[in-house]
Amino acid sequence: MEEKLSWIVSDAVDYKGSPADRSKTGGWVPAALILGIEVCERLSTMGIAVNLVTYLGGTMHLPSSTSANVVTDFMGTSFLLCLLGGFLADSFLGRYRTIAIFTLVQILGTALLAISTKLPRLRPPPCQPTLPCNQADGFQMGILYLALYLVALGTGGLKSSVSGFGTDQFDDKDKKEKAQMAYFFNRFFFFISVGTLTAVTVLVYVQDQVSRSIAYGTCSVAMLTALLVFLAGTRRYRYKKSTGSPIVQILQVVAASIKKRSLEVPYDVGYLYENGPEGSRIHHTDQFRCLDKAAVVAEGDFVQGGHNSAPNPWKLCSVTRVEEVKMMVRLLPIWATTIIFWTAYAQMITFSVEQASTMERSIGSFQIPAGSLTVFFVVAIMITLAVNDRFIMPLWKKWTGKPGFSSLQRIAIGLALSTLGMLAAAITERKRLSVAASVGRATTTLPVSVFQLIPQFFLVGSGEAFIYTGQLDFFITQSPKGMKTMSTGLFLTTLSLGFFLSSLLVSVVKKATGSAGQQGWLADHINYGRLDWFFGLLTILSLVNFVVYLVCAAWYKPQKPKPTLQMEKIGNGSAMEDKV
Questions:
Q1: Where are the annotated coiled coils located (predicted)?
Q2: 232 and 262 inside one domain
Q3: Separation CA 42–CA 50 (nearest Å)
Q4: With DSSP H G I counted as helix, E B as strand and the rest as coil, what are the percentages for the chain, rounded to 5?
Q5: What confidence tens digit (pLDDT) does each residue in 284-300 have?
Q6: Does residue 522 form part of some domain?
Q7: Is the N end or the C end of the chain the one with fewer CB atoms within 10 Å?
Q8: What one-character DSSP code corresponds to residue 515?
Q9: Of the candidates 224, 242, 260, which is a domain's last residue?
């Protein structure tokens, strides 16, 4: 009997709802089937994003700044919708159904995008030498937006659940499977890089040299194939029951503390409400004491009254629940100061691609697609991670005795590198504009090598290697156990808000620097603007943000409970509950 129980995974079930058998469910094979979805999602989303600006400008005839904002709004929405996907997965659908449903949504989006780029009626006529170009009309842009935001919705649902469902296939209480889970995380990041690398090389080349509709149709077919493979593993997956949405839990604490704002928090915190098992409790801390009022017991807090009655979670929350919310609040300054990195990153897939489209990109008879310059992002990430693993970390361990950079240190390095990247972009753009002024701003291809853009791509790409891993590590390890999904969503919102901030900044600069007869820094064609000053502004903003981040990082310290008598009262049971 004991041997049989050892094969049961305690917190998971199989597809029939029975306790999951370790020998028949989970492990590396089902996790690998899930990874296929992530590869195709990266292929589709990045394949669209990195080369979309050239389609909007060259085919849809949109101004430079408008094209950039369409791309950043698309990417920002993709990551923002991760919160919606996570909420649906945690509260209603579960991760398996969320992945299946949102994969279908993304298939529809890429298929519609393939159709919109194929049919002549869905794009304006080509420009004529003697006539002004006609911009895409409302109907044409409406179909394009519908396709893009279906893809964004699919991406948001998938990214919120794929990594979590993959880790569900491993039991962290089993030593062997816990080691396999670490291997899964390594492969997960590798597969993201493979999908991105394929997108910015093969897919972008097909878009530019063969057909965009074929490229997007290929994405749709790839997603459909990945979905069928994913569904084939249904019997092998482990499914974990949802514990409820962390967003709802946070709202309950906030609502309860607001309702009791007129009450006083007892001096002896042992009188605050606590009902969780001793081993899972988080002890009281003094920071953000206004939230402690949610744990003050008042009349009407219990549903029926009596010793065994349950509390109304919108009126009374346990100390542990309150402390979980405090932990999330403490993350917010670090969260806010990492947004600007993704604003700098956004320029690499918008204005930097436009820069590349005006420069000499030929190697012999082969011409590099402008969007493929983003391959240096992936190369920079791979080189940075390899050098960091093989050289920097061993030296760091030797000098400091620590195994590696902390998550906050990695974030700081990423912010510093992105600031240097924006500075390099400003310097390169100044050189490019000087050449444009000397040979004629209307020149289609300037006699400037596109490889001069490598420093800005490489610096921001190296910064991403540090900041992405640093953010993910920080938000997961410093958040409460029951809110890991929420903290991952919080991390992804920095990407979303970074892209939206880019759109806002472009709009403000466009309006502030433009005047009657003058297009300002961000002209309809970048040869007539001052993109170097825009990059200079981002350099200054990044530098100021870096200083603010250092202050916030110095302020941040994981809160530790004080070893007082009051803590013992909490640990001995629900003291206040006994009084009700």
A1: none
A2: no
A3: 11
A4: 70, 5, 25
A5: 888 888 898 888 888 87
A6: no
A7: N
A8: B
A9: 242
d(CA 165, CA 485): 11
Gap between the Cα atoms of 432 and 424, Å rounded: 12
Nearest by Cα to 472 from 335, 374, 380:
335
Q: Residue 520: how many CA atoms within 13 Å on its side-chain side?
A: 16
| Residue 179 in domain | yes
What domain range includes position 279? 246-328+561-579
For strands 366-367 and 362-363, give the pairing: antiparallel
Q: Are residues 253 and 233 in the same domain?
A: no
Q: ∠ CA 329-332-338 to the nearest 5 degrees? A: 165
Residues 19 and 153 in one domain: yes
What's the angle, vertex CA 566, arms to CA 563 and CA 571, rounded to 5? 85
Rg (CA), the chain: 26
List the end-to-end C-alpha distance of the chain, in Å, as a whole number.
Answer: 43
Q: Is residue 149 predicted with pLDDT exceeding 70?
A: yes
For residues 269 and 285, the answer to whether their CB atoms sit within 8 Å is no
Q: Is the pLDDT of residue 577 over 70?
A: no
Q: Are 552 and 337 in contact (CB under 8 A)?
A: yes
Tens digits of per-residue pLDDT, 384-426?
878 887 888 888 888 887 777 888 999 999 999 999 999 999 9
125 secondary structure, DSSP code:
P
Do residues 254 and 42 make contact, with C-beta atoms less than 8 angstroms apart?
Answer: no
Token pair 């967003």 in the structure block, residue: 247
Are residue 190 and residue 266 in the same domain, yes or no?
A: no
Contact between 161 and 81 under an 8 Å Cβ cutoff? The reply is no
The structure tokens listed for 410 are 């990695």
